[in-house]
C-alpha cells in the first residue's frame, strides 16, 4: 500500500528490534527507505538485523542497551543522532513476559516486566519527545501493546497492568504533544507466531492448538502483517490519527466462546450443502485451518 521510499531520509528507532515483531518492523521500515536504529540488550540479535538491512541495501545501527536504565536510554538517543542526525519515528516494542499466577509472581518479576514495558516506554518517549520539542522537529511514536491491557489476562498480571499503563500513556502524550506535531499511537497485535511471545506464552502444541481454536480468523498473525500495519501508522497516510490503539488480532478479543457457537467445523450457508458435505459442514476455502 505504501509507496516505495515512504520513509526515505527518515530515521526509525525501534526498541527490541533484534527479534520477533521488532525485527519485522525494522526490516519493513528499512524496505520503505528508513534508516533504522535497533536497540536492546543482546548485540548478537541486533547485529543480525543490521546485517540483513545492509544486505538489502539499507542503513542501520545497533545500540546495545537496557530500556530500564535511563542513562542507557539517553545514550541510545545520542548514538542515533550522532550517526544519522535525526530521529523521526520511535517504536516502543521491547517487552518481557512469562506466565505465572499473580500470587506466585515475585517482586523482581513484577519489577522486571513493569520496568521494561511501562518505565522503558516512558523513558524512551520522554528522551525522544524532549529532543523533538526542543528542536521543533515533528515525529511519531508507536507503542506495541496487547488487548489484555483492557480485558486483563490471567497469568500475565505484570504485563497486562504495564500494557494498560502504556495505553494510558499513549493517549495522554497524544493530547499533550499534538501541538508539537508529534503523533502517538499504539498497536495491539493478537497472537503472532514465530515471536518471543509465542515461545513464552504458547510453547506447547496443546496450548497452541487451544489458542488457535479461539481465533475467529482461524490462524495466527504473522510478524510481517504487524510490520505493515505499524508502517501505516507511522506513515503520512495516518497523519490525522493520534491517541489511537489499533487492534490487529483476527477477531480474538471479540470472539468469546459463551456468545457464539463453536468456530469449527465451518458450516455451509443454507442450501449450499453439496454431495461432498452430507452434514452441511465443509472445510474453508484453501483447506482446513487447523482449528
Ligand atoms: P520478542 O521477540 O521476545 O521481543 C521482545 C524484545 O524486547 C526482544 O528483542 C528483547 O531483546 C527486547 N527486550 C527485552 N527486555 C529488554 C530490555 N530490558 N531492554 C531493551 N530491550 C529489551 O517478542 P515479540 O513477541 O516480538 O514481542 C514484541 C512486542 O509485541 C512486545 O511488546 C509484546 O508484548 C508485543 N506483543 C506480541 C504479541 C505476539 O503474539 N508475539 C502479541 C501481543 C503483543 P533483548 O533480549 O536483546 O533485550
Task: Explain how this protein is built.
By secondary structure, this protein is α/β, with parallel strands linked by helices. It has 2 domains: 11-260, Rossmann fold (3-Layer(aba) Sandwich); 266-291, no CATH class. The protein is built from 9 helices and 7 strands, in the order βαβαβαβαβααβαααβ. It has helices at residues 20-31, 43-55, 70-84, 107-135, 148-151, 157-177, 196-201, 205-214, 223-234; strands at 11-15, 35-40, 60-64, 89-92, 139-144, 182-189, 245-248. It has a 7-stranded parallel beta sheet with strand order 3-2-1-4-5-6-7, sandwiched between helices. Helix 1 crosses helix 9 and helix 4 (107-135) packs parallel to helix 6. The longest helix is centred in the middle third of the chain and has 29 residues, at 107-135. It starts with 10 loop residues before the first strand and ends in a 43-residue tail after the last strand. The model is unreliable at 272-291 (pLDDT under 50). NADP nicotinamide-adenine-dinucleotide phosphate binds at residues 15-16, 18-22, 40-42, 45, 66-68, 93-97, 116, 144, 146, 189, 191-192, 195-198.
Amino acid at each position: 500500500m505504501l509507496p516505495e521510499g515512504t520513509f526515505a531520509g527518515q530515521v526509525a528507532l525501534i526498541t527490541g528490534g533484534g527479534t520477533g515483531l521488532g525485527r519485522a518492523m525494522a526490516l519493513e521500515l528499512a524496505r520503505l527507505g528508513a534508516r533504522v536504529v535497533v536497540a536492546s540488550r543482546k548485540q548478537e540479535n541486533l547485529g543480525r538485523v543490521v546485517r540483513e538491512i545492509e544486505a538489502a541495501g539499507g542503513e542501520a545501527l545497533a545500540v546495545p542497551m537496557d530500556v530500564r536504565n535511563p542513562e542507557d536510554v539517553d545514550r541510545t538517543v545520542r548514538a542515533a543522532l550522532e550517526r544519522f542526525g535525526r530521529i523521526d519515528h520511535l517504536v516502543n516494542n521491547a517487552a518481557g513476559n512469562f506466565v505465572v499466577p499473580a500470587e506466585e509472581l515475585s517482586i523482581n518479576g513484577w519489577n522486571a516486566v513493569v520496568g521494561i514495558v511501562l518505565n522503558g516506554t516512558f523513558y524512551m518517549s520522554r528522551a525522544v519527545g524532549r529532543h523533538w520539542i526542543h528542536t521543533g522537529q515533528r515525529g511519531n511514536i508507536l507503542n506495541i501493546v496487547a488487548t489484555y491491557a483492557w480485558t486483563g489476562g490471567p497469568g500475565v498480571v505484570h504485563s497486562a497492568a504495564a500494557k494498560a499503563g502504556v495505553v494510558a500513556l499513549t493517549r495522554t502524550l497524544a493530547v499533550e504533544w499534538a501541538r508539537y506535531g508529534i503523533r502517538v499511537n499504539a498497536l495491539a497485535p493478537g497472537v503472532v507466531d514465530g515471536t518471543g511471545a509465542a515461545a513464552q506464552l504458547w510453547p506447547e502444541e496443546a496450548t497452541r492448538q487451544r489458542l488457535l481454536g479461539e481465533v475467529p480468523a482461524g490462524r495466527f498473525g504473522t510478524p510481517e502483517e504487524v510490520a505493515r500495519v505499524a508502517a501505516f501508522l507511522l506513515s503520512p497516510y495516518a497523519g490525522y490519527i493520534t491517541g489511537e490503539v489499533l487492534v490487529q488480532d483476527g477477531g480474538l478479543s471479540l470472539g468469546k466462546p459463551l456468545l457464539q457457537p463453536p468456530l469449527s467445523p465451518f458450516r455451509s450457508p443454507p442450501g449450499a450443502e453439496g454431495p461432498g458435505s452430507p452434514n452441511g459442514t465443509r472445510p474453508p476455502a484453501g483447506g482446513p485451518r487447523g482449528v
